[in-house]
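Weekly modeling sync, notes
Attendees: AB, CL, MP (scribe)

Item 1: holo prediction request
CL wants a bound-state model with zinc ion before deciding which constructs to order. AB pointed out that an apo prediction alone won't tell us much about the pocket. Agreed to run with the ligand included and paste results into these notes for async review.

Input as submitted:
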Amino acid sequence: MSPPQNLIKPSNPFLRMAINKEIAAIFYAIADLLDLQGVEWKPIAFRKAARTLENYSEPMDKIVKAKGIKGVMELPGIGEGIGKKIVQYVEEGKIDEYEELKKEIPAGVRLMLNVPGMGPKKAARLYKELKIDSLEKLEAFAKEGKIRALSGFGEKSEQDILMGLELVKKGQERKLMGIILPYARELAKKINSIPGVQRVELAGSLRRRRETVKDIDILALAKDGKKVMDAFVKLPDVEKVVSKGDTKTAVILKMGLNCDLRVLSPEVYGAGLVHFTGSKEHNVALRMLAIKKGMKLDEYGLFDNKSGKNLACKNEEDVYARLGMQYIPPEMRENTGEIELAQQKKIPELIGYDAIHGDLHTHTNWSDGANTTEEMVVRAVELGYDYYAITDHSKSDVIANGLNEKRVKEHFKEIDALQKKFPQIQLLKGAEVAILSNGKLDYGAETLKEMDIVVGSIHSGFKTPPKEMTKRLLTAMENEYLTFLGHPTGRLLNQRNPYEYDIEKILETAASNRIAVEVNAFPSRMDFDADHIRLALQKKVKLVINTDSHSTQNLDFMEFGIAQARRGWAKKEDVLNALPWKAFQREVLR
Ligand code: DGT
Ligand code: ZN
Ligand code: CA
């Protein structure tokens, strides 16, 4: 299905918004507001234009200056009406239609659209009939049982709304790691260039690559903490200083997140890094272990109880070694069994960040991607892949502009031609095929047999009861053409809970039918989660790690998927697309 809107929408004001993204954000807002007014078709046009804009590399102000509205109308999907709005924004910094709509509908009503299951029709009625115009009011009304008074709403709708509000709140508290990490790296670079700073490291949940993070923790190694902090609070990224000391400073960043910077002296850097990387649960377990061994562990070192001597603190390896353990990679530090493994010297060699040879789940503008097939292939070549699968949506996924059999054929002709043009990469023809409610795949054998890679995904009926969902997946896995299950639980972080089924049974069948399971790297998915990956590996299921890209930029998400696989303790041998081409061809293609 099309990528979660909150990623396409540049609703992340901290990502320095180029003008195209600013206009796109307004177009998305206009579309939402029109939806709320019950206007048909126009919202679709605005969203389409928004997607075009945010993926367009030439800035609109440049185009308008050079060619006026004519230049703007050369963009696909942009006619005169929308073109004029772009010109107005370039010239005046505002769009009249948007200003008008904002007057008619309070901002809080638009926020209500973020509540899962809340479509524009429902939100509009709650506003018109009950005067609910904020999330707070919505919660209060649902709690007090005042919504069931509306026809078509019941007690169940109130519960759904409250559950949805929980997800929205979580989203306000925790941000997607994949969105924050690139930004945090930039910030770390800036801190690194403060005079006197010898080294900088991201710590906390970000270093452990948890799917979502509450804040950004950064450690810097320097002798003079005060100087570093003075320079840090003056960085343009900082909105407000919460507290400032020589070793610890907390600020609120303009992007909306909090950031803690700690400065440590080189002598205790390792112990500090262990402490501030966490997790809290991992730290607690390490401390208990230290106590058992007659030592004491804190952020300044590992101390011998008798002599008081600091035994290990310069680097992390020493700290673990002194505790009689193997080094534990940050992605494993969640106290889910890694401590015991490290004591037995059984920490697996996790898959490396450079191990992937090809992306197997990607979209183009033949369905709902933003880029042409050729643009995607060019980027795949740049990334150094040996092979690359193009897997657009299947015909039932109408909203995602899924391909019917005829269009599949046409697309595959284009891919054949591209293969001649790019002999350095092995192009694989495929599709992300919807698993229909009866478990059948959305294409018949005559179409599937033309494909190298068949991704089976559930894009509808997420609320199917677990028993039926299990049956649905089992039926799909009987299909001999299926290569792997895409985003296997369908969760959208902060937006949609995973769908439920008998996961053990599905994994056992996957193993016996030789069907792999995806670790989807899309920041709002990160699906499977770490526990499920561990379970899959126990059951000898093979993994594939893919980006589910809908644009050339999305192809860079691969590292997040690898991080997730590492959080699930995956080794290179567990991952099919870590195989070089020849071996992959032998093992996977049938
Ligand atoms: P987050 O921020 O919720 O995404 O997760 P973390 O793990 O980054 O948590 P945070 O920012 O509160 O703290 C950063 C690290 O500092 C954490 O991973 C471990 C350490 N830490 C914080 N509070 C405690 C504590 O009460 N006890 C111990 N042992 N360590 C702590
Ligand atoms: Zn999908
Ligand atoms: Ca943190």
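Recorded for review: Confidence is low (pLDDT under 50) at residues 1-17.
Action items: CL to compare against the apo run; MP to circulate these notes.
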